[in-house]
Specification:
Elements (H helix, E strand, L loop, with lengths): L1 H17 L6 E2 L2 E2 L1 E2 L3 E2 L18 H5 L5 H4 L29 H4 L9 H7 L7 H22 L15 H23 L2 H11 L15 H4 L1 E5 L21 E5 L15 H31 L5 H46 L1
Antiparallel strand pairs: 1-2, 3-4, 5-6
Helix pairs in contact: 7-10, 8-10
Length: 348
């Protein structure tokens, strides 16, 4: 069920982050799916539009228990005012009012906040802080609702949170990779660093000092308008289309007339290598830090360990005293019986 919900909630985010606008080709030879569907191109703004829960979500959720007061006023056949679902079928002999069990179906669905603020936190670094504030407030709101507005919960023993433990750990580990890839492939940080340290100076550049001058011009490739294929050529061409010979597009390809024209140039492969190196290094640093912190922070606090030892000691004392009382009672019975037998023997 979690894997199913994972695809439903996060597939669009993964598509926007890693696929939209990434495999589009170049103006003379765009990429077509199934031979006729042109691949969607993204804007230059990078990855954005992260779904997030509004900060007033807990305040609205606090109104949720109000359905316990409103639903009983609704008549049979009407939809519960707090839900889009139709009510359960009711027998004619029953009361016309909604009972609490039926209205309990009117609650809001669970919000997958943890995945959004971990898997895509690089797109909105303020999301964890907002999520923390949301959870701190909603914790008290939910406690108030459970203790005052809802039916008493049946307590059950549980050693841990069950299957959610490996799920949360897996999402946290996957979040390191996704955020590293978001930083590497959806931002200009790596191309800027590669240009600053390698392509702005000798042997690729003509300047003596590292600089960002000329970076924007360096990121746009040249395309000859005459090289448009019939399939990709614009249908309605503006007047200026026939007065110019070339245009610029955002990519790292060789210019027309080059022996390998329109193929990826050396700068592109330098950027790809730098992005992969950045992902590997960042992953190892974060994972190493995570494992060090996990080792330093014990799973069971020292106070809890002392309490467990104390309970074990008290259990051993109780068992020892019980065994001692049992042995004493047996010894007393044997002594009493021996005394009776001795008196009988003396009497005889």
């Amino acid at each position: 069920m979690f894997l199913f919900q994972f695809v439903n909630y996060y597939s669009s985010c993964f598509y926007i982050a890693f696929f939209k606008g990434k495999v589009v080709g170049y103006p003379g030879e765009p990429v077509y799916w199934l031979g006729k569907y042109r691949n969607e191109e993204g804007d230059l703004g990078g990855f954005g539009g992260l779904p997030s829960r509004p900060p007033w979500g807990p305040a609205l959720s606090a109104l949720g228990p109000a359905h316990g007061w409103v639903c009983p006023l609704a008549k049979r056949g009407l939809v519960c005012p707090w839900s889009a679902a139709q009510p359960l079928a009711r027998d004619k002999s029953e009361s016309l009012e909604y009972n609490f069990v039926e209205c309990d179906w009117c609650g809001d669905p669970h919000h997958w906040l943890f995945g959004f603020v971990t898997l895509f936190v690089a797109s909105f670094p303020l999301a964890p802080l907002l999520a923390l504030l949301n959870n701190l407030f909603e914790l008290r709101v939910d406690a108030w609702k459970i203790t005052t507005q809802f039916r008493r919960i049946v307590p059950e023993k549980a050693q841990d949170i069950g299957a959610w433990q490996p799920i949360l750990q897996g999402v946290a580990i996957l979040a390191v990779t996704t955020n590293a890839m978001i930083i590497a492939f959806t931002s200009d940080m790596i191309p800027r660093l590669v240009y600053y340290w390698s392509f702005s100076v000798y042997p690729y550049g003509e300047r003596s000092n590292n600089t960002m001058e000329g970076y924007i011009n360096h990121t746009f490739s040249v395309f000859n308008i005459q090289d448009f294929s019939p399939q990709s050529r614009p249908i309605n061409t503006p007047y200026w289309f026939h007065n110019i010979t070339s245009c610029r597009y955002r990519d790292f390809r060789n210019p027309p007339g080059h022996p390998k024209q329109y193929e990826h140039n050396i700068y592109y492969w330098h950027v790809i290598a730098a992005k992969l190196a950045f992902i590997i290094v960042l992953e190892h640093i974060v994972y190493f830090t995570k494992f060090v912190l996990s080792y330093m922070i014990p799973d069971v606090p020292a106070a809890v360990k002392e309490q467990i030892k104390r309970e074990k000691y008290l259990t051993q004392v109780i068992l020892h005293e019980a065994n001692l009382k049992l042995a004493t009672s047996h010894t007393s019975a044997i002594a009493s019986r021996t005394e009776v037998e001795t008196r009988l023997d003396l009497h005889l």
